[in-house]
Design goal:
Helix content is 73%, strand content 0%. With 257 residues, it is mainly α. The longest helix is centred in the C-terminal third of the chain and has 29 residues, at 190-218.
Length: 257
């Protein structure tokens, strides 16, 4: 019965929980808001979710990357503009992600042309956002809680989010488990999280495409496929992140968001 309710955890599920918990705990103790945002966009949780799900990379992965960006902006708008408490804002953002994913999952065309098109869409949107967005200095903050309290709390949250993993199929790889943790830890600087996500939209499609074609054409082991994806992602993401840091530094004296 538990397995049918998605309560059954495999070894890779536990590994995913451990990795996200470790990254989430790290983000809680980082003062730099931009570094907190980095922990939400490096694809380590994506990779372990990919291994755990065991499905080839496809259009759902590319769509969910865009949805993750929508999630972060929903949380920011709700919390800053509508004055909704941060926890409720995160819950609403996650509910929107799940609702969109559940609606779209059975309706996504199963062909490579659509997958390539969605990946191109992600890249274009990410590039436009990266060039057009405003840059402001974030608020430096780290949790005052001791790690023996913070880490178990984050592990509990991540474990709870894992219960819906199997409902999401390919959308699970970019499900905002890590982003939800960082949204809370960056509640004074949600703008930094939103400014970081276009980098994932720019670099992510190249990773998705490479992983898809290597797996489907060459039939390589999932870990080798993931390693190749990490390499191409890093080559694109690192210089973009350096440029983002430069732009943030140039606007250090701007009013904080």
């Amino acid at each position: 019965m538990f397995e049918s309710l998605n309560f059954h955890f495999s070894f890779y599920d536990y590994l995913l929980v451990a990795m996200v918990t470790a990254l989430g705990t790290l983000s809680a103790y980082l003062k730099d808001p931009q570094l907190k945002a980095v922990t939400a966009t490096i694809p380590i949780p994506f990779g372990f979710a990919y291994i755990a799900v065991g499905l080839p990379i496809g259009a759902a992965n590319a769509i969910s990357g865009f949805m993750c960006m929508l999630y972060a902006n929903i949380v920011r708008i709700l919390h800053y503009k509508a004055k909704v408490p941060i926890v409720l804002s995160i819950i609403i953002g996650l509910a929107c992600f799940v609702a969109m994913g559940t609606f779209l999952m059975p309706r996504i065309p199963d062909n490579e042309a659509f997958f390539v098109g969605v990946s191109a869409f992600d890249f274009i949107v990410g590039l436009i956002m990266f060039q057009k967005q405003k840059y402001k200095a974030g608020v430096r903050y780290k949790t005052p809680l001791p790690i023996y309290i913070k880490a178990p709390a984050i592990a509990g949250v991540v474990s709870g989010l894992m219960f819906i993993k199997r409902l999401m199929g390919g959308f699970c790889t970019s499900f905002p488990m890590m982003n939800s943790i960082v949204s809370y830890e960056s509640r004074f600087s949600l703008g930094d999280q939103c400014r970081q996500l276009p980098l994932f939209l720019i670099a992510g499609p190249f990773m998705f495409l490479e992983m898809h074609f290597i797996e489907t054409r060459l039939g390589l082991n999932h870990w080798l496929v993931l390693l190749s994806g990490y390499i191409i992602f890093s080559v694109i993401y690192v210089p973009l992140n350096n440029e983002l840091k430069r732009r943030n530094a140039c606007n250090y004296n701007n009013p904080q968001e």
